[in-house]
Amino acid sequence: DAGVIQSPRHEVTEMGQEVTLRCKPISGHDYLFWYRQTMMRGLELLIYFNNNVPIDDSGMPEDRFSAKMPNASFSTLKIQPSEPRDSAVYFCASSTSDTQYFGPGTRLTVL
Amino acid sequence: AQSVTQLDSQVPVFEEAPVELRCNYSSSVSVYLFWYVQYPNQGLQLLLKYLSGSTLVKGINGFEAEFNKSQTSFHLRKPSVHISDTAEYFCAVSGFQGGSEKLVFGKGTKLTVNP
Q1: What does DSSP assign to residue A25?
Q2: Which of A74, B4, B27, B69 shows the smallest number of beta carbons within 10 Å?
Q3: Which residues does residue B94 pair with via DSSP β-bridges, in sequence order?
Q4: Per DSSP, what are the bridge partners of residue B114?
C-alpha cells in the first residue's frame, strides 16, 4: 500500500491567498483526520471524518478554515484567506479501527 | 476527556546507553495508548500501541513500553540506543468508545543520541 498521500509537500503563498491542501487516505480506511503541527502548540486535531461525514470540527481555528471529503479516497483542507499565523505543517491521517497512519505532511509558509 | 503529559521535552543520551521516555495520561474511560516517532521533516510513524492484554508491549526498532494502570503511565524504553534513534517521540491516548476515536497527543520528547 502507498500509505497516506498528501500534496503538495511544500506550499509558499502570500497573505490573503487561498490555499488548498489535499489528502488521499489508505484504501479501505473509513476515518480521516487533519492535524496541524507548530512549535508553539504542538500537534492539534483540526477535524475528522467517518465515512466521508465530518464528525468533529471543534479544532478548526476559525471560519477561514474549511474541510471536505467528497468521496472515500480524497479530502481537502482549504484556508481562505491565508494569514502568516497559519504557517505550520499540516498532516492528514487515516484509520480503519484503532490505529492512525499519518501522511508525510504539507509544510505551509504564508508570507 | 483524555490528556497526556510527557514529562521531558528533551532527552540527550550517549550512543548504546539505555533510555526511558516518560508518559502519563488521564482518562475517565478505558484507553488505548500509542507511541509515535517523527524523524526530521517527516510524518509520524507508529512505534507501538497498547490496546489490551499484556502490559508490556514491544514495537519496532527495539523499543518497548509498559502500561501501568495504577500509575496511569506508559513509559517508552530502549536498552541501547543508536544515533539513528535521534527523533521526536509522541505519546498519544484515545478513549475506548468502540470506534476510531480521536487521539490526544503529548507535547513530544526530543531524543538526541550523541556519539
Answers
A1: P
A2: B69
A3: B32
A4: B14
CA dist., res. A55 & res. A75, Å (int):
14
How many H helices and E strands in chain A? 0, 11
Alpha-helical regions (H) of chain B: none
- DSSP E strand boundaries for B59-106: 64-68, 73-78, 87-95, 104-105
- Per the CB < 8 A criterion, the answer to whether A65 and A5 are in contact is no
Q: Which residue of B has its CA nearest to A4?
A: B43
Q: What is the pLDDT along chain A (111 residues), one digit of tens a residue?
A: 689 999 999 999 999 999 999 999 999 999 999 999 998 888 999 999 999 999 989 899 889 999 999 999 999 999 999 999 999 999 999 998 778 999 999 999 999
- Specify whether the CB–CB gap between B114 and B101 falls below 8 A: no
